[in-house]
Amino acid sequence: MKILTPAMHGIADYLMVLLLWSAPTFFVLPDDLSRLAYVFGIAHLALTVCTDTTSGIFRFFSMPLHGLIEFGVIIILVTVSYTIFRYDERARGFFLTYAVLLLVLFLVTDYTDSEKPVRRFRGPTQVPGPNTIV
User: Fold this and answer.
1) Which residues make Cβ contacts (< 8 Å) with residue 2, sequence separation at least 6?
2) Is pLDDT of 119 > 60?
3) Whole-angstrom Cα distance, residue 82 to residue 102?
4) What pTM value is reported for the model?
5) What angle do CA 18, 105, 74 make, to 5 degrees?
6) Residue 106: its pLDDT value, please?
């Protein structure tokens, strides 16, 4: 069920960035994991700011492409959790939690809502006069 519009998804993305940036303090993460949380926060912020929604500023990416990138990040996070960080319980839990939150956000967002028709300038309209043949 798609209950989030692209505007609401943008707000949720900004909240996700705040969560990523505050996670090292709240969960007392080690230095290397803290740096990764900050990097993921910066990357998530960059993606959100560059998406064509009301919450985006630069609008390089369409909303369907934003969803595709988020889904790719989910796959990468789950893969990294069970390969590189398989022995680090704290890192695996952090990345799996981030992946699950992104997956929930991905599943409840309507990514096609932002595709609106493009208005083009057609020039001045010609109003037929009394002596004009139509």
Assistant:
1) 108, 109, 110
2) no
3) 17
4) 0.80
5) 85
6) 96
User: CA dist 109 to 49, 115, 122, 128, Å?
Assistant: 17, 14, 34, 48
pLDDT by residue (tens digit) across 45-73?
999 999 988 888 988 899 999 999 999 99
Going by pLDDT thresholds of 50, 70 and 90, the confidence category of residue 114 is very low
Mention every residue, 6+ apart, whose C-beta is less than 8 A from residue 105.
4, 9, 12, 13, 16, 70
DSSP calls for 108-124? TB-TTTT--PPP----P
Tokens at 33, concatenated = 């994991």
SS (H, E, C) 56-104: CCCCCECHHHHHHHHHHHHHHHHHHHHCCCCCCHHHHHHHHHHHHHHHH
Contact present, 42 and 50 (Cβ < 8 Å): no
Q: Which residues neighbour 79 within 8 Å (Cβ) at sequence distance 6 or greater? A: none
